[in-house]
Amino acid sequence: MRILGLDVGSKRIGVALSDELFLTAQGGKTIERKNEKTDLDTIRELIMKEAVGEVVVGLPLNMNGTESNQTRDVIAFFESLKGVIDIPIKTWDERLTSVQADHILLEADMSRAKRRKLSDKVAAQLILQSYLDSRKKGEKNV
Q1: Residue 139 to residue 75: CA distance in whole angstroms
Q2: What are the sequence ranges of the domains in the chain?
């Protein structure tokens, strides 16, 4: 079983998958958004193909914790996804992950075009790794 991490944007959805031990997040593909039904079908197929047992969707809150229009769009997508999959799904605070992803890609001296292609995937990876790390900390406290 694996955990799927999603960075849902208006044009693309970044995808990351955990390893089977839930230690690391690896960047997956980037889904170019078409329409909600196609996007949901693509994610559902990925869940079946990769034996995913849980989904984590990045929730883009403002720095002060309030919701933005993008937050509401992601929540609507999250609710739609809940309606078509049969596994646990949760949101995860993703504040600054896109900024971190851009910073990582800038440090790698990538061109703007390459950064644009990889940014969503790296953001999904950061969201999922943060979630995996929090699970590890929680297990130590048990």
Answers
A1: 28
A2: 2-140
* Helix or strand run (H / E) with residue 42: helix 36-49
Question: What is the enclosing helix (H) or strand (E) of 76?
Answer: helix 69-82
Q: Are 31 and 15 in contact (CB under 8 A)?
A: yes
| Residue among 8, 50, 49 at smallest CA distance from 26 | 50
Q: Write down the pTM of the prediction.
A: 0.83
Residues 6+ away with beta carbon under 8 Å from 77: 8, 36, 39, 57
Distance, CA of 120 to CA of 125 (rounded, Å): 9
Find where tokens 């644009």 sit. Answer: 116
Instruction: Answer yes or no: are the C-beta atoms of 60 and 9 closer than 8 Å.
Output: no
The CATH code that applies to domain 2-140 is: 3.30.420.140
Tens digit of pLDDT at every position of the chain (142 positions): 999 999 999 999 999 999 999 999 998 889 999 999 999 999 999 999 999 999 999 998 877 777 888 899 999 999 999 999 999 999 998 866 666 656 665 676 666 666 566 677 878 888 999 899 988 776 543 3
